[in-house]
Design a protein that fits this description.
The structure is a single chain. By secondary structure, the chain is α/β, with parallel strands linked by helices. It has a single domain (6-278), classed as Rossmann fold (3-Layer(aba) Sandwich), CATH 3.40.50. It is 36% helix and 19% strand. The protein is built from 9 helices and 10 strands. The protein has helices at residues 13-29, 53-58, 79-88, 100-107, 123-131, 144-150, 172-186, 201-213, 249-264, and strands at 37-40, 47-49, 96-98, 113-117, 137-140, 159-163, 191-198, 219-225, 237-243, 271-278. The strands form 2 sheets. An 8-stranded mixed beta sheet has the order 5-4-1-6-7-9-8-10, with helices on both faces. It has a two-stranded antiparallel ribbon with strand order 2-3. Helix 1 (13-29) packs parallel to helix 4 (100-107), helix 3 packs across helix 4 (100-107) and helix 6 packs parallel to helix 7 (172-186). The longest helix is centred in the N-terminal third of the chain and has 17 residues, at 13-29. The chain is globular, with a radius of gyration of 17 Å. The mean pLDDT is 96. The chain binds S-adenosylmethionine. S-adenosylmethionine binds next to helix 6.
Length: 280
Amino acid sequence: MLSYRHSFHAGNHADVLKHTVQSLIIDALNEKDKPYLYLDTHAGAGRYQLSGEHAGRTGEYLSGIARIWQQDDLPAELASYISCIKALNPNGMLRYYPGSPLIARHLLRADDSLNLTELHPSDYPLLRNEFQKDARARTERADGYQQLKSKLPPPSRRGLILIDPPYEIKSDYQAVVKGIQEGYKRFSTGIYALWYPVVLRQQIKRMFSDLEATGIRRILQIELAVRPDNDQRGMTASGMVVINPPWKLEQQMNHVLPWLHQHLVPTGTGHTKVSWIVPE
Ligand SMILES: C[S@@+](CC[C@H](N)C(=O)[O-])C[C@H]1O[C@@H](n2cnc3c(N)ncnc32)[C@H](O)[C@@H]1O
């Protein structure tokens, strides 16, 4: 089943959180000269038109990126992320939103490489066209979970692996843990960043206990909720699970999350959280 299209949700509060974390991890990797691999298992289309039929219909970006990108008091932690938004919207009008592959494209260096997989028959060609002229990038219409077996470890032995499934099938909650286990077996020093939605808190608790049961250590949780948990349909919060986070990430997120929450959720409902699922 591939009914999910990210274009309906591009630039919403969950993307803001995900891409803030992604860009801070890339900043940290860029501090060393040595090249690395950026592996995006569920890459999406790459670029989203915000006035288009999909994003324009839901307007989710209006309570996401639109609320923050032009603030004058942007915290330093958002500099790289917002530089990607501004590069794509140079005339000051918010017309496009960069998905995770475009954020990586903007921030990676000449010797780094990108491996991007996407299964959707409409989104994959868009992704491929975006990257046709980028010699650093390889795009494939393939199952992202398989890449965790076939593409790891990277020859450089450095890498960020972003795992961002739509969770439209319940088995994704188990598949991500299995996929991480497969990847970690091959590449235990990689940085793994897993996005999750909070629709039913119980599903996330179960996913975390499955993660703990793998024996993997250094697992950080970062979460931003726009409403309290409830058992109605709909996403109340989203988060990132980061394995082997760069040493500054915890402190950076503790600093930037209250600012993000204040601007994304003017009513003040919900919460923010940075905590270790499994410490050192
Ligand atoms: C949440 S979106 C990705 C958004 C993107 N990572 C970003 O941040 O811009 C999830 C994507 O995964 C794709 N997808 C679903 N199952 C997949 C699979 N097994 N392997 C690769 N892609 C898959 C969907 O078509 C969808 O485009």
